[in-house]
Write the structure tokens for this entry.
Amino acid sequence: MSDTLHGTTLPDDNHDRPWWGLPCTVTPCFGARLVQEGNRLHYLADRAGIRGRFSDADTYHLDQAFPLLMKQLELMLTSGELNPRHQHTITLYAKGLTCEADTLGSCSFVYMAVYATRFSNQLPKASVHQLTHYF
């Protein structure tokens, strides 16, 4: 995945572009604003971006995991764990990546941020789901 601007050589030179995803302080990070239609999510490439530079392995894992993350987020909309009217961050782990997502109470969007997993001794306060059974 590349988000190189015209006239630059590094994708981490893109701080002047709008950030569509869930606010994230980790780099590299892939962020997107997904359009919600009922319990379905639609990815729009012009509402997504990358900050920093993913390793080749992380890029490959993101390409593999993204459709499964989307499906899991749709299932969470169906179950009510992700609610379009209430802000609640959920966290998914897959292929060495962490995905945080939240509707932010927007009623029509799901904001996401995906970055390489950095394990710590503290468990996040948000809902945590492991997607390892898909791989």
Q: What stands out?
A: The CA atoms of residues 88 and 102 lie 6 Å apart. Helices lie at 56-79.
